[in-house]
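A further point concerns the way the authors explain their paired sequence and structure data. Showing the layout once, in full, would remove most of the difficulty. For illustration, here is how one protein appears when written out as sequence plus C-alpha coordinates:
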Amino acid sequence: MADPRITKLAQVLVQYSLQLGPGDEFLLDTSPLAAELNLAVYKEALLSGAHVMTSCSIPGTSEIFFKYANDEQIDYVSPIRWLVAERFSAVLYIDAEHNTRELSGVDPARQSRAQKARAELSKLFYGRAARKELRWCLTVFPTHASAQEADMSLSEYEDFVYGAGMLDREDPVAAWQEEAERQRRLIAWLAGKKEVVIRGDNVDISMSIEGRKFIESAGRVNFPSGEIFTSPVRDSVNGWVRFSYPAIYGGREVQDIELWFEDGRAVKERASKGQDLLSALLDTDERSRYLGELGIGTNYNIQRFVKNMLFDEKIGGTIHLALGAGFPEAGGDTDSGLHWDMLCNMAQGEILVDGELFYQNGQFVV
Protein backbone atom coordinates (compact mmCIF):
# COMPACT_ATOMS: atom_id res chain seq x y z
CA MET A 1 0.00 0.00 0.00
CA ALA A 2 1.30 3.45 -0.91
CA ASP A 3 2.45 5.61 1.99
CA PRO A 4 -0.12 8.44 2.24
CA ARG A 5 2.63 10.75 3.50
CA ILE A 6 4.26 10.59 0.06
CA THR A 7 1.07 11.81 -1.60
CA LYS A 8 0.80 14.58 0.97
CA LEU A 9 4.46 15.51 0.43
CA ALA A 10 3.93 15.78 -3.34
CA GLN A 11 0.94 18.05 -2.82
CA VAL A 12 2.82 20.29 -0.38
CA LEU A 13 5.83 20.55 -2.71
CA VAL A 14 3.78 21.45 -5.77
CA GLN A 15 1.12 23.64 -4.20
CA TYR A 16 2.99 25.31 -1.32
CA SER A 17 6.76 25.08 -1.84
CA LEU A 18 6.85 25.72 -5.61
CA GLN A 19 3.37 27.19 -6.12
CA LEU A 20 3.17 25.71 -9.59
CA GLY A 21 0.50 27.08 -11.90
CA PRO A 22 -0.69 26.99 -15.52
CA GLY A 23 2.10 27.57 -18.04
CA ASP A 24 5.01 27.17 -15.62
CA GLU A 25 8.01 25.40 -17.15
CA PHE A 26 8.98 22.94 -14.44
CA LEU A 27 11.97 20.59 -14.13
CA LEU A 28 11.76 17.54 -11.88
CA ASP A 29 15.41 16.63 -11.24
CA THR A 30 15.47 13.32 -9.42
CA SER A 31 16.62 9.70 -9.07
CA PRO A 32 14.92 6.40 -9.95
CA LEU A 33 15.25 5.50 -6.27
CA ALA A 34 12.50 8.05 -5.53
CA ALA A 35 10.06 6.43 -7.98
CA GLU A 36 6.95 6.68 -5.80
CA LEU A 37 7.50 10.36 -4.99
CA ASN A 38 8.51 11.09 -8.61
CA LEU A 39 5.17 9.84 -9.93
CA ALA A 40 3.19 11.64 -7.23
CA VAL A 41 4.94 14.95 -7.97
CA TYR A 42 4.57 14.45 -11.73
CA LYS A 43 0.83 13.94 -11.32
CA GLU A 44 0.39 16.98 -9.05
CA ALA A 45 2.46 19.15 -11.40
CA LEU A 46 0.30 18.18 -14.36
CA LEU A 47 -2.85 18.90 -12.36
CA SER A 48 -1.45 22.36 -11.61
CA GLY A 49 -1.24 23.10 -15.35
CA ALA A 50 2.58 23.21 -15.49
CA HIS A 51 4.70 21.93 -18.39
CA VAL A 52 6.82 19.18 -16.84
CA MET A 53 10.29 18.03 -17.89
CA THR A 54 12.10 15.27 -16.02
CA SER A 55 15.80 14.63 -15.46
CA CYS A 56 16.71 11.38 -13.74
CA SER A 57 20.28 10.71 -12.64
CA ILE A 58 21.70 7.19 -12.80
CA PRO A 59 23.06 5.95 -9.45
CA GLY A 60 26.83 5.50 -9.60
CA THR A 61 27.58 7.91 -12.44
CA SER A 62 29.09 10.60 -10.19
CA GLU A 63 31.86 8.27 -9.05
CA ILE A 64 32.59 7.19 -12.63
CA PHE A 65 32.63 10.80 -13.80
CA PHE A 66 35.19 12.00 -11.28
CA LYS A 67 37.39 8.95 -11.79
CA TYR A 68 37.49 8.96 -15.59
CA ALA A 69 36.50 12.41 -16.94
CA ASN A 70 39.33 14.47 -18.42
CA ASP A 71 39.81 18.15 -17.58
CA GLU A 72 37.76 19.31 -20.55
CA GLN A 73 34.86 17.10 -19.50
CA ILE A 74 35.06 18.32 -15.90
CA ASP A 75 34.98 21.93 -17.11
CA TYR A 76 32.01 21.30 -19.43
CA VAL A 77 28.62 22.65 -18.39
CA SER A 78 25.63 21.25 -20.29
CA PRO A 79 23.63 23.75 -22.37
CA ILE A 80 20.52 22.03 -21.00
CA ARG A 81 21.51 23.22 -17.53
CA TRP A 82 22.00 26.73 -18.91
CA LEU A 83 18.55 26.60 -20.54
CA VAL A 84 16.91 25.61 -17.27
CA ALA A 85 18.72 28.35 -15.34
CA GLU A 86 17.88 30.97 -17.99
CA ARG A 87 14.17 30.36 -18.59
CA PHE A 88 12.44 27.74 -16.42
CA SER A 89 9.89 28.84 -13.83
CA ALA A 90 10.55 26.15 -11.23
CA VAL A 91 12.90 23.28 -10.36
CA LEU A 92 12.49 20.50 -7.80
CA TYR A 93 15.53 18.50 -6.75
CA ILE A 94 14.79 15.16 -5.07
CA ASP A 95 17.81 13.66 -3.32
CA ALA A 96 17.57 9.86 -3.01
CA GLU A 97 20.91 8.38 -1.97
CA HIS A 98 22.09 4.96 -3.14
CA ASN A 99 25.55 5.26 -1.54
CA THR A 100 26.38 8.18 0.73
CA ARG A 101 30.09 7.41 0.43
CA GLU A 102 30.16 7.21 -3.37
CA LEU A 103 32.79 9.94 -3.76
CA SER A 104 35.00 8.99 -0.82
CA GLY A 105 37.87 7.96 -3.11
CA VAL A 106 37.68 10.95 -5.46
CA ASP A 107 40.53 13.47 -5.71
CA PRO A 108 39.31 16.63 -3.89
CA ALA A 109 40.99 18.82 -6.52
CA ARG A 110 38.71 17.36 -9.20
CA GLN A 111 35.63 18.11 -7.13
CA SER A 112 36.90 21.64 -6.56
CA ARG A 113 37.52 22.10 -10.30
CA ALA A 114 33.97 20.99 -11.12
CA GLN A 115 32.58 23.49 -8.61
CA LYS A 116 34.61 26.30 -10.15
CA ALA A 117 33.42 25.40 -13.66
CA ARG A 118 29.80 25.79 -12.56
CA ALA A 119 30.24 29.09 -10.74
CA GLU A 120 28.70 31.25 -13.48
CA LEU A 121 25.77 28.87 -13.86
CA SER A 122 25.15 29.03 -10.11
CA LYS A 123 25.34 32.83 -10.19
CA LEU A 124 22.70 32.96 -12.93
CA PHE A 125 20.45 30.43 -11.18
CA TYR A 126 20.54 32.09 -7.76
CA GLY A 127 20.31 35.55 -9.28
CA ARG A 128 17.02 34.67 -10.99
CA ALA A 129 15.82 33.04 -7.77
CA ALA A 130 16.65 36.22 -5.83
CA ARG A 131 14.60 38.25 -8.33
CA LYS A 132 11.66 35.84 -7.90
CA GLU A 133 11.94 34.78 -11.54
CA LEU A 134 12.71 31.17 -10.59
CA ARG A 135 11.28 29.04 -7.79
CA TRP A 136 13.23 26.02 -6.63
CA CYS A 137 13.12 23.47 -3.87
CA LEU A 138 15.31 20.64 -2.56
CA THR A 139 13.84 17.66 -0.73
CA VAL A 140 14.89 14.17 0.34
CA PHE A 141 13.33 10.78 -0.34
CA PRO A 142 14.21 8.20 2.34
CA THR A 143 16.39 5.31 1.18
CA HIS A 144 18.25 2.51 2.93
CA ALA A 145 21.55 4.32 2.33
CA SER A 146 20.43 7.55 3.98
CA ALA A 147 18.83 5.61 6.84
CA GLN A 148 22.09 3.75 7.46
CA GLU A 149 23.98 7.05 7.40
CA ALA A 150 21.64 8.31 10.12
CA ASP A 151 22.00 5.08 12.15
CA MET A 152 18.32 4.25 11.73
CA SER A 153 16.19 1.57 10.18
CA LEU A 154 14.38 2.63 7.02
CA SER A 155 11.02 2.87 8.80
CA GLU A 156 12.56 4.97 11.59
CA TYR A 157 14.17 7.25 9.03
CA GLU A 158 10.91 7.63 7.12
CA ASP A 159 9.20 8.71 10.34
CA PHE A 160 12.04 11.16 10.98
CA VAL A 161 11.90 12.67 7.46
CA TYR A 162 8.13 13.05 7.33
CA GLY A 163 7.98 14.27 10.93
CA ALA A 164 10.59 16.94 10.20
CA GLY A 165 8.35 18.12 7.35
CA MET A 166 5.29 18.13 9.66
CA LEU A 167 3.56 15.78 7.24
CA ASP A 168 2.08 13.96 10.24
CA ARG A 169 -0.03 17.06 10.90
CA GLU A 170 -3.59 17.26 9.62
CA ASP A 171 -2.72 20.42 7.71
CA PRO A 172 1.07 20.65 7.13
CA VAL A 173 0.75 23.79 5.01
CA ALA A 174 -0.91 25.62 7.92
CA ALA A 175 1.89 24.41 10.21
CA TRP A 176 4.54 25.79 7.83
CA GLN A 177 2.66 29.07 7.51
CA GLU A 178 2.75 29.38 11.32
CA GLU A 179 6.50 28.69 11.26
CA ALA A 180 6.91 31.39 8.60
CA GLU A 181 5.12 33.89 10.81
CA ARG A 182 7.39 33.06 13.78
CA GLN A 183 10.42 33.58 11.57
CA ARG A 184 9.10 36.89 10.25
CA ARG A 185 8.80 38.19 13.81
CA LEU A 186 12.47 37.37 14.44
CA ILE A 187 13.48 38.94 11.14
CA ALA A 188 11.51 42.09 11.94
CA TRP A 189 13.46 42.41 15.21
CA LEU A 190 16.75 42.01 13.33
CA ALA A 191 15.90 44.61 10.66
CA GLY A 192 18.30 47.53 10.66
CA LYS A 193 20.76 45.94 13.08
CA LYS A 194 24.50 46.20 12.40
CA GLU A 195 26.67 43.75 14.33
CA VAL A 196 26.43 40.10 15.37
CA VAL A 197 28.70 38.60 18.02
CA ILE A 198 28.54 34.83 18.60
CA ARG A 199 30.18 33.31 21.65
CA GLY A 200 30.20 29.85 23.14
CA ASP A 201 32.16 26.69 23.78
CA ASN A 202 32.83 26.31 20.06
CA VAL A 203 32.82 29.86 18.75
CA ASP A 204 34.06 33.40 19.34
CA ILE A 205 33.33 35.39 16.21
CA SER A 206 31.96 38.76 15.12
CA MET A 207 30.57 40.06 11.84
CA SER A 208 28.68 42.98 10.36
CA ILE A 209 25.13 42.59 9.03
CA GLU A 210 24.75 46.28 8.22
CA GLY A 211 22.59 46.69 5.14
CA ARG A 212 21.86 42.96 5.07
CA LYS A 213 18.49 41.23 5.20
CA PHE A 214 17.58 38.03 7.02
CA ILE A 215 15.57 35.57 4.93
CA GLU A 216 12.90 33.21 6.19
CA SER A 217 13.04 29.54 5.26
CA ALA A 218 9.75 27.86 6.07
CA GLY A 219 9.31 24.97 3.67
CA ARG A 220 9.67 26.61 0.28
CA VAL A 221 13.28 26.51 -0.99
CA ASN A 222 14.12 23.55 1.25
CA PHE A 223 11.65 20.93 2.40
CA PRO A 224 11.69 20.29 5.24
CA SER A 225 13.07 23.58 6.44
CA GLY A 226 13.35 25.81 9.47
CA GLU A 227 16.02 28.52 9.56
CA ILE A 228 16.61 32.21 9.20
CA PHE A 229 19.76 33.26 7.34
CA THR A 230 21.68 36.15 5.87
CA SER A 231 24.97 36.93 4.15
CA PRO A 232 27.37 38.91 6.37
CA VAL A 233 29.40 41.82 5.06
CA ARG A 234 32.26 40.05 3.32
CA ASP A 235 35.32 41.61 4.95
CA SER A 236 33.79 42.02 8.43
CA VAL A 237 34.18 38.50 9.86
CA ASN A 238 36.80 38.08 12.60
CA GLY A 239 37.38 35.33 15.11
CA TRP A 240 37.42 31.57 15.54
CA VAL A 241 34.91 28.75 15.19
CA ARG A 242 35.04 25.00 15.73
CA PHE A 243 32.32 23.04 13.98
CA SER A 244 31.20 20.46 16.50
CA TYR A 245 29.49 18.27 13.90
CA PRO A 246 31.22 16.65 10.91
CA ALA A 247 31.00 18.55 7.62
CA ILE A 248 30.17 16.32 4.67
CA TYR A 249 30.96 17.15 1.07
CA GLY A 250 30.33 14.79 -1.83
CA GLY A 251 30.10 11.84 0.53
CA ARG A 252 33.38 12.61 2.29
CA GLU A 253 33.40 13.47 5.97
CA VAL A 254 35.57 16.21 7.45
CA GLN A 255 35.76 16.19 11.24
CA ASP A 256 36.61 18.76 13.90
CA ILE A 257 36.97 21.67 11.49
CA GLU A 258 38.41 24.83 13.00
CA LEU A 259 38.61 28.10 11.09
CA TRP A 260 40.30 31.40 11.94
CA PHE A 261 39.00 34.56 10.20
CA GLU A 262 40.71 37.89 9.70
CA ASP A 263 38.96 40.72 7.86
CA GLY A 264 36.46 38.27 6.41
CA ARG A 265 38.87 35.67 5.10
CA ALA A 266 39.56 32.23 6.56
CA VAL A 267 43.32 32.55 6.96
CA LYS A 268 43.85 29.22 8.70
CA GLU A 269 42.01 25.91 8.72
CA ARG A 270 42.42 22.67 10.58
CA ALA A 271 40.61 19.32 10.67
CA SER A 272 41.31 16.04 12.45
CA LYS A 273 40.03 14.12 9.41
CA GLY A 274 39.72 15.28 5.80
CA GLN A 275 42.25 18.13 5.92
CA ASP A 276 43.09 17.65 2.22
CA LEU A 277 39.47 18.04 1.15
CA LEU A 278 38.95 21.02 3.45
CA SER A 279 41.95 22.92 2.08
CA ALA A 280 41.18 22.03 -1.55
CA LEU A 281 37.61 23.29 -1.34
CA LEU A 282 38.57 26.47 0.49
CA ASP A 283 40.89 27.18 -2.43
CA THR A 284 38.17 26.64 -5.06
CA ASP A 285 38.43 30.30 -6.09
CA GLU A 286 39.37 33.71 -4.68
CA ARG A 287 36.08 34.10 -2.78
CA SER A 288 35.69 30.59 -1.33
CA ARG A 289 37.48 31.48 1.92
CA TYR A 290 34.85 34.12 2.78
CA LEU A 291 31.57 33.55 4.61
CA GLY A 292 28.55 33.57 2.34
CA GLU A 293 26.01 32.69 5.00
CA LEU A 294 25.11 32.89 8.66
CA GLY A 295 22.10 30.69 9.44
CA ILE A 296 20.23 29.93 12.66
CA GLY A 297 18.21 26.70 12.91
CA THR A 298 14.56 27.03 14.01
CA ASN A 299 13.17 23.49 13.49
CA TYR A 300 12.88 21.97 16.94
CA ASN A 301 11.15 18.91 15.43
CA ILE A 302 14.62 17.88 14.22
CA GLN A 303 16.37 16.66 17.34
CA ARG A 304 19.23 14.52 16.04
CA PHE A 305 22.15 14.81 13.62
CA VAL A 306 21.65 12.58 10.56
CA LYS A 307 24.61 13.58 8.35
CA ASN A 308 22.38 15.31 5.81
CA MET A 309 22.67 19.10 5.83
CA LEU A 310 19.13 19.57 4.52
CA PHE A 311 18.02 18.47 7.99
CA ASP A 312 21.08 19.15 10.14
CA GLU A 313 21.38 22.88 9.44
CA LYS A 314 17.75 23.30 10.54
CA ILE A 315 18.25 21.74 14.00
CA GLY A 316 16.88 24.05 16.68
CA GLY A 317 19.80 24.96 18.92
CA THR A 318 22.43 25.21 16.17
CA ILE A 319 23.92 27.77 13.85
CA HIS A 320 25.61 27.14 10.52
CA LEU A 321 28.16 29.10 8.56
CA ALA A 322 28.72 28.58 4.84
CA LEU A 323 32.00 29.20 3.05
CA GLY A 324 31.73 30.64 -0.44
CA ALA A 325 28.74 32.00 -2.32
CA GLY A 326 26.34 34.35 -0.61
CA PHE A 327 22.70 35.18 -1.26
CA PRO A 328 21.89 38.21 -3.42
CA GLU A 329 18.42 38.46 -1.91
CA ALA A 330 20.05 38.94 1.51
CA GLY A 331 22.47 41.56 0.17
CA GLY A 332 25.33 39.11 -0.25
CA ASP A 333 27.90 39.95 -2.92
CA THR A 334 30.27 36.98 -2.59
CA ASP A 335 30.48 35.06 -5.87
CA SER A 336 32.03 31.63 -5.62
CA GLY A 337 31.71 28.15 -7.05
CA LEU A 338 31.57 26.87 -3.47
CA HIS A 339 28.76 26.99 -0.93
CA TRP A 340 29.59 24.63 1.93
CA ASP A 341 27.52 24.67 5.12
CA MET A 342 29.15 23.77 8.44
CA LEU A 343 27.23 23.18 11.65
CA CYS A 344 27.96 24.44 15.17
CA ASN A 345 26.16 23.40 18.38
CA MET A 346 24.91 26.38 20.38
CA ALA A 347 23.53 24.50 23.42
CA GLN A 348 26.11 26.47 25.42
CA GLY A 349 26.42 29.82 23.74
CA GLU A 350 24.86 33.16 22.94
CA ILE A 351 24.25 35.56 20.08
CA LEU A 352 24.41 39.29 20.72
CA VAL A 353 23.04 41.71 18.14
CA ASP A 354 24.16 45.32 18.53
CA GLY A 355 25.05 44.40 22.11
CA GLU A 356 21.59 43.01 22.96
CA LEU A 357 21.02 39.36 23.79
CA PHE A 358 19.12 37.71 20.92
CA TYR A 359 19.74 34.00 21.50
CA GLN A 360 21.03 31.95 24.42
CA ASN A 361 21.75 28.26 24.94
CA GLY A 362 19.91 27.15 21.83
CA GLN A 363 16.80 29.34 22.25
CA PHE A 364 15.66 32.74 20.97
CA VAL A 365 15.16 35.14 23.86
CA VAL A 366 13.73 38.22 22.14
User: Anything to note?
Assistant: The chain has a mean pLDDT of 95. The chain has two domains: 4-164, 178-364. The radius of gyration is 20 Å. The longest helix spans residues 172-190.
